[in-house]
Amino acid sequence: MSSQSHRKMSGIRPNKPRTDEIELTELFSSQMSQLCLNEDYSDVCFIVENQRLPAHRVMLAARSEYFRALLYGGLSESTQTEIHLKVPVEAFKSLLRYIYSGHMSLAQMDEDNILDTLGLANQYGLSELELSISDYLRQYLALGNVCAILDAARLYNLEKLTKVCLTFMDRNAADILQHDSFKSLSKESLEEVLRRDSFFAPEVQIFIAVWDWCKHNPNVDIKVSIRITISNYIFNILFVSLQSVVSFVRLPLMNLEDLLHVVRPSGILNPDKLLDAIEEQNTSKYLPYRAALWPEENVATAKFVSRTIMGECRAELLNGDVTSYDMEKGYTRHCISDTNETGIVVELGTICIINHIKILLWDRDNRAYSYFIEVSPNQTQWDRVIDYSKYHCRSWQFLYFPARPVRYIKLVGTYNTVNRLFHVVALEAMYTTNLPKVINDIVAPTANVATIEMSAVVVDGVSRTRNCLINGNYTDYDWDSGYTCHQLDSGEILVRLGQPYIIGSMRLLLWDCDDRTYSFYIETSVNQKDWVMVVDKRNEHARSWQNFSFNPLPVVFIRIIGTRNTANEIFHCVHLECPSQDPNFLLAEKEKQKLMEEKAKEQLRIVNDNQASTSAGSRASTPRRSVNNLRAIAPANVQLREVEDNILVQLGNVAGGQHNV
């Protein structure tokens, strides 16, 4: 009977939508929250700031590992009905309400209460609540609360919140320095802020703010008192030590007037520090510049008041137009000279931290350019960050280098395959976190760079569609189209990449609509003069997909030359990738590389062990000789006595304890 009823119920199809799940979570939460701070069924009471807060052990233990250990873990609190806690009472009440209901209205709480609750969430292991409060605070950062939030974020190791706070302070450095809350920043947080190259404000303003912070926190900063005696007179001199926050102020960035009329009268720095700063200004090649940081945003635009200050047709370079250019207009240029004294110079609106530059070289024909790029913070000291003067480049250039403060960018063309002019259509400069691997200024890509989007072009080879070898379509091909070819013994397929890349693999799809096979070889070059053979399949019968790996090397030109076709006298290629994008091939190559590295490490370990065993006896017998040899090469700032002691201890250990140190 019951089974028949069950079958009958399962066949019911009511007119209104079917509901398989009962969802009464909101009602449950509301009813459970009524127990919060309620004496009914309470079996424990917390005493916080002289207030009695009733609670229920099982509820707390179910929601928090901390309370589970406290109330049921065998501690003394397990048997106590009253437990005293030294925590902020309002924050603890908010926490209890969250534990009972799963709900917390942050908009109804003041900032101090929110930060206190964040601390309790961290202390009691309520990670979901901690993360939610952290996300809330990230949305409501302001000048008045960012310092307190940064202190809390660092205290509770909230990395994302810390990063957002520091970025906010970078963007509003001048205003933060003048805000009263800056004086309440902890010493550790203040030091972290001052260490940042991106905390960008006039250094004299930073010094004044730090000086005010020191006066507001007299017992926090570390000072050193030096007592000296001269002619029976005793002098007590108070200097700020190297551990002081003042040491993070970059004195060489201040002008002489600020050093003499602002820093010197403060009396908190040894006068020698001022002299050192002045000397560094005059002699140092690299000053510790601060600079603005705008991640993933092009700072070479009118928005940032950037401009081109050298070159012909200067207004064209930064106008953002990368489509409306031709032989007559739409580019900035300079004449190429043998001395490289001319160039195109861009001045950013302010000094910025950048590590990525994109330039569009004029590309309405197949010409190529060679060039180099230098950057400078002051237009006096220039650093060459990109040197492609030996490579043929075309169209868009994607350039990366170590992050540095930059105000001026200089482009110098050294070669044009057509004439003696260097043409640049557009330039972008930014800081990016999406950095590829770079070897000697040259990108070592993981994605395929033999594509139209990456400025590659097919220079030689016959096809019905231009650049079909690199257009990414390797499925739509047949007897008449979809491939690039050349006549055996009289031609080649030549691909030019947009710029030099470090390449160590390729993948090639040979035309395979029947069972024919091919023989071929592949060469690479950076200048179309000196060629290196990286693939040799002249004695093999290859068909369809082909993967190749070889020692990585700089590549601009890829030359594919067919030597045999079992069907006719034409060599056909459908698709080219470099590096290869075949996941199975890449996985096999990764495993191969891992084995090679492990083998190399093992060989190195064996060599080191052999050297250690052969030299241990002689070292142990003549330890003092090693120390004497070290005296000749030890840096001046190394305490020789400490070096001697360390070496004697180590030599004694090597000798198996035979030497008594």
Automatic annotation (TrEMBL):
Provide the BTB domain boundaries: 42-108
Among Gene3D superfamilies, the record links this protein to: 1.25.40.420, Galactose-binding domain-like (2.60.120.260), Potassium Channel Kv1.1, Chain A (3.30.710.10)
Superkingdom of the source species: Eukaryota
Pfam families (alphabetical): BACK (PF07707), BTB (PF00651), F5_F8_type_C (PF00754)
Q: What stretch or stretches form a coiled coil here? A: none
SMART domains given in the database record: BACK (SM00875), BTB (SM00225)
What CDD domains does UniProt report for this protein, alphabetically?
BACK_BTBD9, BTB_POZ_BTBD9
Per its UniProt record, what InterPro entries does this chain match?
BACK, BTB/POZ_dom, BTB_POZ_domain_cont_9, BTBD9_BACK-like_dom, FA58C, Galactose-bd-like_sf, SKP1/BTB/POZ_sf
Please report the name of this protein according to its UniProt entry.
BTB/POZ domain-containing protein 9
What is the scientific name of the source organism?
Musca domestica (House fly)
